[in-house]
Amino acid sequence: MGDIQGVIFDLDGVIVDTAVHHFQAWQRLADQLGFSFTEKDNERLKGVSRMDSLNILLEIGGISKTEQEKLELAAQKNSEYVEAISQMTENEILPGIKAFLAELKEAGIPIAIGSASKNTPIILERIGLKDAFDTVVDGNVINKAKPDPEVFLTGARRLNIDPSHCVVFEDAQSGIEAAKNAGMYAVAVGDAAVLSGADDYVSSLEEVTLDRLKKVI
Predict the structure, then answer these.
(1) Residues of the chain scoring pLDDT < 70
(2) Helix residue ranges, H only, 8-130
(3) What fold, for 19-85?
């Protein structure tokens, strides 16, 4: 890919771990609907939009709902989730993130958030990173969910960088596929046994430095 000209981060599971808040909100909804929803089931929802997640949840429970009922259930889940994330603090920023962001800033490399979450602005504000990124592309401005590359291509366009010179950090299979569909270098934050198709793998951002990244690329 040549030189690194921009870096795009997924939010959930990369910058902060909101997965537990999502899982608990979906689990409460499943309980209410009369079936159990496990952590294994929850893996299918990672990186997936809210309505698509709800459809997967209903499929797991073997439950059929009208479009209006689905909208109401999704709004209920989101309300519970927003209540949980509104209590977040900067202590919930994952290890290694602040140091790596500072290193990228110092090197003059533009950075972006590329997330399906419509709650991205709330989370960034609560953890004190609202102004840390050059642009934020989230579920409020895109129409197509990952693995469609729209979120990352929009990020590259806003940063004014060719996609082939962008590095993406992702923790979800759909996100890795979206990054590759965008023609970008994909770094998976997770296990190669679970996440396939990435160009590089790290267990956390604590392992990542700009120097290491340049070497592997």
Answers:
(1) 1-2
(2) 19-33, 39-43, 50-61, 67-85, 97-106, 120-126
(3) DNA polymerase; domain 1 (1.10.150)
Catalytic residue among 3, 12, 138, 211: 12
Is 17 noted as a catalytic residue in this protein?
Answer: no
Residue 115 counted as an annotated binding residue: yes
For the chain, the domains span: 6-16+90-216, 19-85
For the stretch 196-205, pLDDT in tens is: 999 999 999 9
pLDDT digits (tens, 9 = 90+) for 157-198: 999 999 999 999 999 999 999 999 999 999 999 999 989 999
CATH topology of domain 6-16+90-216: Rossmann fold (3.40.50)
Catalytic residue list contains 12: yes
Pairing of strands 111-114, 200-202: unpaired
49 is in an annotated binding site: yes
For residues 10 and 46, the answer to whether their CB atoms sit within 8 Å is no
